[in-house]
Amino acid sequence: MGKSEVSLERTYRSMLYKIIFDIGKRLRNPSIDRWFAFLKESEKWDIETLEKYQLQRLQEIVSFAYEHSEFYRKTFDEAKVHPSHIQSLSDVTKLPILEKKDVIACNAQIHTKFKFKKVHVATTSGSTGDSLVFNRDESADSFNRAAIFRGYSWHGVEPWQRNGYFWGFDFTAFERIKVWFLDRLQNRFRVFNYQDREFKRFARKLLKAQYIHGYSSMIYQSAKLINQWNLPKPKNIKMVKGTSEKIYDSYHEEVIKAFGHKVISEYGATEPGIMAFECPEGNMHMNMEGVLIEKIDNEIIVTNLQMKSFPVIRYRLGDYIELAPKTKQCACGRAHYIVEEVTGRIGENVYGNKQVYPSLYFYYIFKNLGKKHNLKLTYQVVQETKGRLTFNIEEKLNQDQKQLLENEIVNYFSDDIAYTITDGFKKEKVNSKSKSFISYI
Ligand SMILES: [Zn+2]
Question: How much is the average pLDDT of 240-244?
Answer without folding.
Answer: 89
